[in-house]
Amino acid sequence: MSLDVTFLGTGAAFPSPSRGASALVLRRAGQCWLFDCGEGTQTQLMKSHLRAAKITKIFITHLHGDHIFGLPGLLCTLSLQRSPDASVAPIDIYGPLGLRSFLWRSLELSHSEPLLPYSVHELVPTQDQCPDGEFRDFSGLDRGEALAQAPPGTVVHLDPETDSYLLLEDEELSVRAFRLFHRVPSFGFVMEEKPRPGKLKVHILQELGVPPGPLYGELKRGRAVELSSGARVLPRDVLSLPVPGRKVCVLGDCSGPVGPGALRLCGQADLLVHEATLADGLQDAARQRGHSTPGQAARFAAECRARRLVLTHFSQRYPPGGHRHRRLQSQAKTATAGHQVTLAEDLMTIEIPVKNKDEDFATTELPVKQ
Amino acid sequence: MSLDVTFLGTGAAFPSPSRGASALVLRRAGQCWLFDCGEGTQTQLMKSHLRAAKITKIFITHLHGDHIFGLPGLLCTLSLQRSPDASVAPIDIYGPLGLRSFLWRSLELSHSEPLLPYSVHELVPTQDQCPDGEFRDFSGLDRGEALAQAPPGTVVHLDPETDSYLLLEDEELSVRAFRLFHRVPSFGFVMEEKPRPGKLKVHILQELGVPPGPLYGELKRGRAVELSSGARVLPRDVLSLPVPGRKVCVLGDCSGPVGPGALRLCGQADLLVHEATLADGLQDAARQRGHSTPGQAARFAAECRARRLVLTHFSQRYPPGGHRHRRLQSQAKTATAGHQVTLAEDLMTIEIPVKNKDEDFATTELPVKQ
């Protein structure tokens, strides 16, 4: 099953002709999931090979304008493209508390009532996700008032045991969020596929005398079966190795993680998307603004033993191809010491191939550095 | 004094790579005034020869997303570009009631506190500016609550005598708004220069024995003076003809005007910017959606004897250069019967030259057709 990531906007702070504001699409099984939606995202989508109508889920890392100001317009445009009588599943939108009010207010005041249904699932941040005194509590915002007419929403609290937010889980995959430190509370998201069971080795089944039918299904689902002869057949005897799942992590703006959740969840990521707003010579400025440099991103990637690191969210002072951009590139290569690292550009697509069956499973239980 | 209009976005409903969402800049004496600010306007500005930092006033015709969703981002970016200690005049933003709440909510929820001061002047629409039952009253919105912390704002009511809203007036020019009919209340804006006094004819002043000094100033200001000889000198005796002012009218989305204000104010406009969302074969669809066709726009331009008509806000089904676009062009030429008509494209600039001194003054008192 194909899995790829397309960067729609790789610039920080504001969109420019050379770097759009933050947005990327994770595409899997024909569905598109959008991560962040800066101003101009819908135009970038039109320039790409992706179809906006395939977006079924949207994840917002934090509420800064360069990550959300494209969202009301995108919803309006998606709404125009849908036929009014089509029965469609709602678009699920996940992001920090306050997102539902932002969307509702923007759509209400602009007289835009999207025909497409959507739900907003708001993550409740903790106060240590931003500098002292800068935390704003949006929990009481509009409650009981205008928002009562707004589309449905749920509120998701931190699970203190796993230090994460479970956003969705089905037979094939799960998505969790974890906490990051930024000027405003920021989040990262992990999409993790579950391992797919290996194929049945039919010649062995025949040798063992397992009759084709329901027993095949039981074995495929990982359950031992007993034959009429009384013999017991174990799944591992008749199944090839399972296909390990892939893990993609997308971090919002940050100068680092908050709590152990980030490292736990990102362990052995197949693709880790991390911001690198400023060059390594500007660590102090980066930290002060809640941002990272290529060196910091590489350290985080090394700690979680990520297989591939992609840097994005570059200050507009680093347009692609310029000499400053080349310096960033060489810093990234040095910092990752030969590991795979890529500097994202607008409209770049990166494929995450299916893993070999004999690869180790990714573990989410990496030891956390103190 | 140079005066020109640059179209930043000429598309309807949503931005696309070939036509940005609605925005244009009127530039005069180095200052830029922005009319509408659809998503992506700041990127279009960067592609143009204009400097966003020169924007001192913003006019919003109506609250549909394709006219306002670029405004929060633009304010944030302008704010980033200003040095925090610079003492700057606030940006004045004019638009329909509800605009202040939209801006404040967007900036508050995105944790964006622009360093640049701004004021919002809200025009109170009348219920007949949109279809029955679709009018929404935003007059009570947020009053006394969150908006109390918001930037200052004023509320401007219709002057029933002139059927217009006086927005600003100084020695050089005035700006007024007038009512239009659309799916939501929409406005048009008229910038009208006052005539500039003619030059002093120095050789005649010398012949008449007027001593250089304060008397010259009095005459230039249009006041008669008395010489020590007892002779009286009239301004018209010593001044060349005044230079007539120019008039630029920018209409928001509409299927037509509401009340006599529009025709009165747009009389003999030097440049009339009118929407033409759909082609002439689609009048009914256009009217139903509160929009116009080239033919309708041409009729309005003829009624107000506009010197030059520019059409904009085209449905994205008419990308520049396509065969449908050429059909629109020929409809526009036919409808204006040889008069000057232009179909706007993104980043097109149109200059409005200084008028000849012997041209008629523009009058705002054209007879209104019943």
How does this structure look, described?
2 copies of one chain form a homodimer. Chain A contains 11 helices and 18 strands. By secondary structure, chain A is of the alpha/beta class. Chain A has an 8-stranded mixed β-sheet with strand order 7-6-5-4-3-2-1-18. In chain A, strands 8, 9, 10, 13, 14, 15, 16 and 17 form an 8-stranded mixed β-sheet that branches. Chain A has a two-stranded antiparallel sheet with strand order 11-12. In chain A, strand 8 and strand 9 form a beta hairpin. The interface between A and B is large, with 41 and 40 residues.
Which SSEs are present, and which pair or pack?
The structure is a homodimer of 370-residue chains.
Chain A: E1 3-9, E2 23-28, E3 31-35, H1 41-47, E4 55-59, H2 65-68, H3 71-81, E5 91-96, H4 99-109, E6 118-123, E7 153-156, E8 165-169, E9 173-181, E10 186-193, H5 202-208, H6 214-220, E11 225-226, E12 232-233, H7 235-238, E13 247-251, E14 256-257, H8 261-266, E15 271-275, H9 283-288, H10 294-303, E16 309-312, H11 323-336, E17 341-343, E18 349-351
Parallel strand pairs in A: 3-4, 4-5, 5-6, 6-7, 13-15, 15-16, 16-17
Antiparallel strand pairs in A: 1-2, 1-18, 2-3, 8-9, 9-10, 9-14, 10-13, 11-12
Helix pairs in contact in A: 10-11
Condensed summary:
Two copies of one chain form a homodimer. Chain A is of the alpha/beta class. The first copy, chain A, has eleven helices and 18 strands.
Give the CA-CA distance, first to last residue of chain A.
37 Å
Rough outline of chain A: globular
- What average pLDDT do the residues of chain A reach? 91
Strand order of the largest sheet of chain A: 7-6-5-4-3-2-1-18
**Class derived from helix and strand content of chain A:** alpha/beta
Order of helices and strands of chain A: EEEHEHHEHEEEEEHHEEHEEHEHHEHEE
Q: What percentage of amino acids of chain A are in beta strands?
A: 15-25%
How helix-rich are the residues of chain A, as a percent range? Answer: 10-25%
The biggest sheet of chain A amounts to: 8 strands, mixed
Q: Which quaternary structure do these chains form? A: homodimer
CA radius of gyration of chain A: 22 Å
Report the largest inter-chain contact.
A-B, 41 and 40 residues
Number of strands of chain A: 18
Uncertain residue ranges of chain A = 360-370
Number of separate helices of chain A: 11
